Amino acid sequence: MEADMSFLGLFLEASLLVQAVMVLLVAMSILSWALIYQRRKVLKAAETEALKFEERFWSGVDLAKLYKEVSAKGNKVQGTEHLFHSGFREFARLRQVRSMDPVSVMSGTQRSMRVAHSREMERLETHLSVLATIGSISPYIGLFGTVWGIMNAFIALGSVQQATLQMVAPGIAEALVATAMGLFAAIPAVIAYNKFSTQVATIDGNYINFAEEFTGILQRQTFGSVAQAEAQGQEA
Questions:
Q1: Sign of CA dihedral 133, 138, 140, 144
Q2: CA–CA separation, 185 and 142 (whole Å)
Q3: If DSSP codes are grouped into helix, strand and coil, which group holds residue 33?
Q4: Best CA proximity match to 177, nearest among 1, 68, 54, 26
Q5: Residues 6 or more apart from 32 whose CB is under 8 A from it?
Q6: How does pLDDT run across 170-217, given as a tens digit for each residue?
Q7: Is residue 79 exposed (0-12), middle (13-18) or buried (19+ Cβ within 10 Å)?
Q8: Which of 29, 35, 145, 200 is within CB 3.0–4.6 Å of 21 for a Cys-Cys bond?
């Protein structure tokens, strides 16, 4: 009787363990593609938001006015806007404390932006470890299914007098399908992980550069005000 060499036929003829391996790999592949779509959307939005906000920031708009615009978004503040909002809020709060010296004001402002930066990076890196895990273990799971399937095929051959290719082929084929499925799940996950990691690193660099430039602007305002006050005191 001729064996069914289609994917469905090979799956149905496989042992329960190999079937479980195939089902697991299909589930991992579906999860991988869902995360790829979701992460691509998040990172693309982060890049677009950063470019749009920095264009607005460097347009010469008053920082207090820009802070009010960002604050109006409420919980939707993300990315570069989050760094700006956290830094300027802390800067304005600390400057109202009369006993606070300029160095402490800037230190508190930088600390607030570092916390915001850390939270943004956590948001961008969410689920990347899952993609890395799928990419690294899927081939081994598939290989396990292959080894188990081939082992069962050879054990079955031990009970017959004469082995033919027609008898061996279905067992080996169904075993090799597990390896193919493992690679099918792993390759997109690895490619996506590398691509997303590069994107996250680029966005991280943009965040750091913006925080440094924003700190420089606030620092000039802070120490410039102190120098102006000292000059007025000497004239008096």
A1: positive
A2: 10
A3: helix
A4: 26
A5: 131, 134, 135, 185, 188, 189, 192
A6: 667 777 888 888 999 999 999 999 999 999 999 999 999 999 999 998
A7: buried
A8: 145
